[in-house]
Write a structure and sequence with these properties.
- By secondary structure, the protein is an alpha+beta fold.
- The chain has a single domain, classed as Electron Transport, Fmn-binding Protein, Chain A (Pnp Oxidase, Chain A, Roll), CATH 2.30.110.10.
- The protein has 4 helices and 8 strands.
- Strands 1, 2, 3, 4, 5, 6, 7 and 8 form an 8-stranded antiparallel sheet that branches.
- A hairpin with a 5-residue loop joins strand 1 and strand 2.
- The two termini are 17 Å apart.
């Protein structure tokens, strides 16, 4: 069942949520077709969602790139606002793939500012979120949404 269009968030609301919220939840298809759902920090740039991940999420997406990501805010039902993105995720496998991505550097700079103080005391001029491909399964995941659904329960 689709949500009525009149409940959708406005584009500027989507940009505000995507630029300010700390956590997304990423769903991948795990072993045995089970859904693996994990909260993660994320970046937003060029209409794409960027997640630096490790382990099972990366393994899952290499095997099956189908992915859903949800970002929402507020806790009480009448105040919930959210966006669900669906599509095929790409794993950036190495430094060359990272450098070739047109938005990753800007996303890393924004994430450095957004998560400043998330793992300690904030600094005056935070550096970019400098994660890069490491080992077998620490990689950037990029989702360019094929389908997006949003809702604003304030409109109910």
């Amino acid at each position: 069942m689709a949500l009525p269009r009149e409940l959708a968030l406005e584009p500027e609301q989507i940009e505000a949520i995507m630029g300010s919220q700390w956590n997304c939840r990423i769903a991948t298809i795990g072993p045995g077709e089970r859904i693996n759902l994990t909260p993660m920090w994320f970046g937003w740039g060029g209409g794409r969602i960027y997640v630096y991940a490790r382990g099972q999420k990366v393994v899952n997406l290499r095997r099956n790139p189908n992915c859903s990501i949800i970002v929402d805010r507020n806790e009480r039902f009448p105040e919930l606002q959210g966006i669900m993105f669906q599509g095929l995720a790409v794993v950036l496998e190495d430094a060359a793939a990272e450098q070739g991505d047109p938005h990753l550097a800007a996303v890393q700079a924004h994430m450095g500012r957004k998560y400043n103080g998330g793992h300690g005391a904030p600094v005056a001029d935070p550096p970019p979120f400098a994660a890069t491909a490491r080992g077998r399964n620490r990689r950037w995941i990029v989702l360019e949404p094929e389908h997006t659904v949003s809702w604003d329960n304030f409109k109910l």
